[in-house]
Amino acid sequence: MKAAVMTMMAALAVATAAAQEPAGQITNRIFLVRTVKPVRTAIAEVVVQTGSIESPAVVDLSPKVSGRLVATSLEDGANVVEGTVVKAGQVIARLDNRDYAARVASAEAGLAAAQATLEDARKEFARTEALLKENTATEQEADRAQAVLKRAEAGIGEAEAALALAKLDLAETEIKAPMDARVAAKHLHPGAMLSPASVVYRLVAMDELRIFFDVPTTRFAKLKPGVTDVAVVVDAYPGEELHLPVFTVHPAANERTRTVRVELRLPNADGKYLPGMYVRGELALDRREGALAIPHECLVPMIGKTIVYEVVDGRAVAREVTLGVRQDALQEILGGLGEGAEVVSAGTHRLADGVAVKVESGN
Fold first, then answer.
1. Which of 14, 19, 146, 356 is the most exposed place for a label (fewest CB within 10 A)?
2. Contact 249, 220 (CB under 8 A)
């Protein structure tokens, strides 16, 4: 901003001096300048943001039943430690299951007893029904036999439910990974007494991480999921630049910061990147192919407008230009300048409209 103000003041001073000199005097002076020609190129507004890498899922893994922890290893016997890669459904810890196995056996015996009781009740009911038809049994006896049968049938349901619950509890003595992940922390070891409140491991999903940037809401309309390109540099790997598309723009703005959250997806099958790493991103907004552009140093800010000096027949001609997107040192020109124009890039601070110039070098 300071440089822009200084340039503007210098330009105004030159213009004032030119106006004060006698007619023809300024035209007798020749100013040495350098020039460039506008180019057609791809250009985009670049917004630089900082952000961080996050995991899509972090799980503190606890048992669903109580018991003594007897193993923290994989099925092949490999010990589970921080950094171990686990797969969804893989057994990664075990509780002492003897008590739960005994409960299953007891429930199976209970079901067998209930089935025997049901068989007896069916036989008794059939016998009573036959006697009732022969008038050798009373209605009350038949009703009692039917009630006993219904209780026996209900007993089967209760016994089956008890067995299913016992089997479920037995299965829960094997603690399984709920997702593909990496072990971020191991809190307990064999011998510890566990309850459903005990955390054995912290698991972090790592195969595809998330990168988040908080972008000013003034740029919201230019953010296009699947289209907007982001050049990402992870601080841990300063010499590497990744190009990732915007995956999604979260639908609600932060009322305090007036920003919207932009999400990128970062493939990480090799585990190269870690949650918590700091990243810098350059978001290419409003990308335009074949834009007419000149170096930003060609611009001369004036009050209420911006001009450039075009060299025409050895003289500097002021052209008011309409500006588009700026990217680094390039400025898009939307109007006011032709494609083949010869534009002053060095020496603008000494010029005024109509002065004679000599081109030192150019495109």
1. 19
2. yes
Q: Assign residue 249 the CATH number of its domain.
A: 2.40.30.170
Cβ proximity of 357 and 344 under 8 Å: yes
Tell me which residue range forms the domain holding 173. 58-111+146-203
Same domain, 189 and 300: no
Q: Tell me: the pLDDT tens digits for 335-353? A: 999 888 999 999 888 889 9
In total, how many domains does the chain have?
3
pTM over 0.70: no
How far is residue 240's CA from residue 243's CA, in Å, rounded to a whole number? Answer: 10
Burial of 141 (0-12, 13-18, 19+ CB in 10 A): middle
Q: Is there a domain that residue 138 lies in? A: no
| pLDDT on residue 99 | 96
Domain stop point among 203, 218, 250: 203
Q: Is residue 125 situated within a structural domain?
A: no
CA distance 10 to 62: 71
What is the rounded distance in angstroms from the CA atom of residue 64 to the CA atom of residue 126? 45
Are 301 and 245 within one domain?
Answer: no
Burial of 230 (0-12, 13-18, 19+ CB in 10 A): buried
- Tell me, yes or no, whether 153 and 260 share the same domain: no
Examine the domain organization and report whether 226 and 269 are in the same domain.
yes
Kindly list the distances between the CA atom of residue 354 and the CA atoms of 19, 22, 317, in Å, as whole numbers in the listed order.
Answer: 12, 14, 6
How far apart are the C-alpha atoms of 295 and 249, rounded to whole Å? 32
C-alpha 287/C-alpha 289 separation (Å) is 7
Note whether 52 and 264 are within 8 A (CB).
no
Which letter does DSSP use for residue 336 in this model? S
Q: Express each pLDDT in 283-309 by its tens digit.
A: 988 788 888 999 999 999 999 999 999
10 Å CB burial of residue 252 (0-12, 13-18, 19+) is: exposed
